[in-house]
Amino acid sequence: MNEQGGRLPVEIDSTVAHEARVYDYWLGGKDNFAADRALGDAIAEHIPTIKTMARANRAFVGRAVRYLVQECGIRQFLDIGTGIPTSGNVHEVAQSAEPSSRVVYVDNDPIVLAHARALMTSTDEGATRFIFADLHDPDSILSDPALAETLDLTQPTAVMLVAVLMYFRENSEVEQVLGKLVDAVSSGSYLTITHPTADFDPEAMAGVVASAQQSGIPFQPRGQDEVAALFEGMDLVEPGVAPVLAWRPDPEPSGITKLHPEHEVDPRSAYYWAAMARKR
Question: Which Gene Ontology terms describe the biological processes this protein takes part in (predicted)?
């Protein structure tokens, strides 16, 4: 049962790979099963550095949240597709910079739900909540009482969609979902997206798509222009749609940049685009 008394589907099918658990495996977590590891390894055959890329993507979250709190004055976050909790969650980063920050997480994996209840704490000044829902049904997110109890969408809010939109095959469906989410938040809110791409290595990404589809998981990489189009009508934050490693990188090397300390790492070596934009 959830906090509002509704019944939640908590069955876990360990024989079928799930996106959140595959990502957990790449990040070195322990909340994954053989099917998840098999898909993770199959993808790694095409992109041997996929685990390091996942860490680079995770590091982006920290940079983006710090920027939103410190430079944009954001105090509210809606993080959809949050995944299994690990160090550097949105609320940890946000509340370390501003203790009053409030965060709502959304995911559709029962394992994420179990960990969210146990691990997601908050400062006294702020708040964190979890909604068990699917991004394919944005209305179920926006109408959940936990959202209204935690966030005031009449005030600027950061909507975080990190490594999640590739599970939508059709651009039209992505546009519909984003339209509902952006319409629901106030002017001055921000949308943050990372998205895998075939722009940097088409052959390798084709192998990833095939492996995911064989496991029953839709996977749709998108090009730079397609990612830019997701922010239509919004004002992109510099540096615009950039490789995830090149989006406001930290001065000190970390993650994938430690693979080759003897020379500068090509930012296109992590196959993700990253961008953030402000709602007018």
Answer: methylation
